[in-house]
Amino acid sequence: MSKRLVIVESPAKARTIKGFLGPDFDVESSIGHIRDLPERAADVPAKYKKEPWARLGVNVENDFEPLYVIDSEKKQRVADLKKRLSQADELLLATDEDREGEAIAWHLSEVLKPKVPARRMVFHEITRDAIQHALEETREIDSRLVDAQETRRILDRLYGYEVSPVLWKKIMPRLSAGRVQSVATRLVVERERARRAFVAAEYWDIEGTFVPGPFTARLVALDGKRVAQGRDFDSLGTLAEGTIRLEEARARALADALQASEFAVRTVDEKPYTRRPAPPFMTSTLQQEASRKLRFTSQTTMRVAQRLYENGYITYMRTDSTTLAESALTAARDQARELYGADYVPEKPRHYDRKVKNAQEAHEAIRPAGDRFRTPQEVKGELTRDEYGLYDLIWKRTIASQMKDASGSTVSVRLGARASTGEDAEFGASGTTITFRGFLAAYEEGRDEEPEGADDKLLPPLSEGDRLDAQELEPQGHTTTPPARYTEATLVRALEERGIGRPSTYASIMGTILDRGYVFKRGTALVPSFLAFSVVALLEQHFEKLVDYDFTARMEDDLDLIAEGKEHRVEWLRRFYFGSNGDEGLHDLVTHRLGEIDAREINSIPIGNGITLRIGRYGPYLEREDKRVSVPDNMPPDELTVKAAEELLAKPTGDREVGVNPETGRPVVAREGRYGPYVAELPPDGVEEKPRTASLFKTMSLETVTLEEALRLLSLPRNLGEVDGEEVTAQNGRYGPYVQKGKESRSLEHEEQLFTITLDEARELLSKPKERRGRGQKAAGPLREVGPDPLSGKTIVVRNGRFGPYVTDGETNASLRRGDEPETVTLERATELLAERRAKGPVERRKRS
Asked: For residue 316, which of 76, 124, 298, 540 is within the disulfide window of CB 3.0 to 4.6 Å?
């Protein structure tokens, strides 16, 4: 009996497909990529180690030939697949239908070297019909798609491996640069620069409450001149010409002068209102909307979507298409008609044009799988909370995209009166009345920010000349606000609008800039670190082209041309790396410019009053003359004003030199750290070595710790001797002092015991049964309640745990991160942390031996 081997990327996808195929099929998973460019020098085969290009993993002198190696963890998997293939009569490579999936299929073919017929099997949803259709419509591997993906991989390797060493030499070791990650970091830094340069302006107006109604209106004009609102000020606080800026005294005086005035409606402007539904989801819009409504990070959204796709609930989730297949259009229209009535469905299906620069993927939009969409209620019992939330979002968006416009009317009213001072004051109000909800009956797209003046209040019927009474006239002060920081959702949108990156890369970009320490989160906002300022400044000043938005987008265009067969891969890489027609290539750029870079200048930011912020190997610090003080690593750059810098310099809690270790000649300092005060013995300048550190005892302080005490602390852990052939030590840990023998440990009562406990006392302590933490103790209450989880409705609270503060909904716990404070963490951020934790799946418990 013939056997057909089907290979996909993931075990979950393999299980689902196996359920649709009969016993003649063997469905296996490659568990992602089976080979890639070498990540470490140890991965390079011995015969290539001495080659000048070995560190790159790309032979730049021989048509940019990549050196691919099989991951050590995948060698057994490859052997298993080869064994399965030896028993098969046909090989079907069923990896995802995008460029990366095409490349995985090619790598499998290159490594497995099938002697039986091998074909490509592609589908965009995992349903019985789609799998059967894919079996009937197999094709060859698309070499142009593989070329485009491999060029992208080689390009990213050359960029990262050539530019990153410059950062190591001029800023600090172990930093990374990347074609898209560096541009994304630049966007975040530029926004923070704008916030630092922003000058707030104060302005006043008057809000009136009028009857009949009641309804509110705001002062918009005075003696025919427009009263300034926030949009009338630029970033330096300068007011646009032709507007009046009210100060508090004048606003209060005017409100008093209008108290006895007669108000009348001057104009009523009514216009028809129409709102169209949003198109079906593509990857970027799914990430943005899941961020707004479910508080998911980009990575969480993609993890959850991957599970939904692999288990047959939605179509492929990496796409920049808003197109729906005819069967999907019919399914969406039928379901909308069934749920909301025929009046809610237009005569003809709606089709959406993609507005994404460089859109290239040939898939459908993201939608529920199948020719009949299962409602969220039908699948609720089969899905986790987060899977259900995302499926519900995708289902609603798809149905709404095939429904009629919402319609109604928008009314703008101007009313006014003459004050007792003779001034003519005019107030304005607007409201929208929806007479037909249309698609809004199913779904409404979220917004990142409400536009200034947005107001959907319902106004009473009004006509010109109608008399009105002012119930209240309240002067209100306002302050202009700096441009909002990016969130993951708005940063994805900014990259997408510039044509930078691809659907499959956005989540990894967000993860990379967070993991590298270039960005941290304050709530859901992305805040750049001072380190990011140095990295971006270096790239902008010396490698401007590499972080230029248009240049980066043009590279995406070129990769598309390679995929279309209109550009040759090797020639393009040669121009990029070696240059052409007088333009420097990447290699010459990083080689020739290295000497121009002044490391001290790059790592310095003037603050004012003679204060400079510098980025050092151990973090940012302030410097003025001979005084230095560390800057908290979770301080947003826009908060480091001259005043804040002066306050930090005035504090006695910065780095304090305690003395010099007489045995090593190295300086010992006391400093404040993220987990409390500690002492550190610093290595000599130019030596890349982590300093020895030790936490201060609870009885010590940064201001008074002596060199003798510091050296005593740095002597820990203390070796007490051996018991049963194993070393026994006394150590100070994050959760207090303890003794340890092998894997066994016991807590000490107080820190001084670390220096007084004997081997016999430690042996006796270790012989006693270990007391479980918290046994017999009442659990500590929550530090504070944050609010209800938007999906489950359960109350989220902040607690203090063994590993620090965390948020919990009673089922899932998620630790707070850098930038998160227990006292101020928001519901949005708490929900995001919990969703991210759930998306990672359950924690694997260690098995007891």
From this structure: 124
SS3 (DSSP) at 805: strand
Residues 281/493, Cβ–Cβ less than 8 Å: no
How far apart, in whole angstroms, are the C-alpha atoms of residue 131 and residue 284?
Answer: 26
Q: Which residues are CB-neighbours of 751 under 8 A, at least 6 positions away?
A: 697, 698, 699, 732, 736, 737
Q: What is the pLDDT of residue 53?
A: 94
Q: Which residues contact 410 (CB under 8 A, 6 or more apart)?
A: 270, 271, 272, 273, 430, 431, 432, 433
Strand residue runs (E) in 482-618: 519-522, 525-528, 579-580, 583-584, 604-608, 611-616
Residue from 594, 486, 602, 635 nearest 533 by CA? 602
Backbone angles phi, psi at 802, to 5 degrees: -60, -35
Catalytic residues: 316
What is the tens place of the pLDDT at every residue in 449-501? Answer: 655 544 557 888 899 999 999 999 999 999 999 999 999 999 999 999 999 98
Residues in CB range of 788: below 8 A, 6 or more apart? 794, 795, 796, 827
Rounded to whole angstroms, how far apart are CA atoms 611 and 708? 33
Q: Is 763 exposed, middle or buried (0-12, 13-18, 19+ CB in 10 A)?
A: middle
- Is the sign of the CA dihedral 194, 200, 203, 208 positive or negative? positive
Inter-CA distances, 581 with 63, 562, 575, 584, Å? 19, 21, 9, 9
Predicted TM-score (pTM) of this structure: 0.81
Omega into 11 within 30° of 0, i.e. cis? no
Q: What is the 3-state secondary structure (H, E, C) of 661-676?
A: CCCCCCEEEEEEECCE
Q: What is the mean pLDDT of the chain?
A: 89
Length of the chain counted residue by residue: 849
What gap in Å lies between CA 255 and CA 208, rounded to an integer? 9
